[in-house]
Amino acid sequence: MARQCDICGKQAQVGHRVSHSNIKTKRLFRPNLQKVRHQNNDGGVMTLTVCTRCLRSGAVVKPVERKAGRQAA
Question: Is 70 a residue whose pLDDT tops 80?
């Protein structure tokens, strides 16, 4: 599966690398994707792969605090 944003669907785009002599070779423009924990409307928490634009626009709601597992005695 290709790397893409779970919210907006942004994925890699194809373009050209252009040299000084104007020779064009193919290249990829990859989106800046981050793994982020997201809290659903029902209170469940899941990990999403999200682009930084969706993070900045507030499309991801981060959970308030992580539940502690076992406590060391």
Answer: no
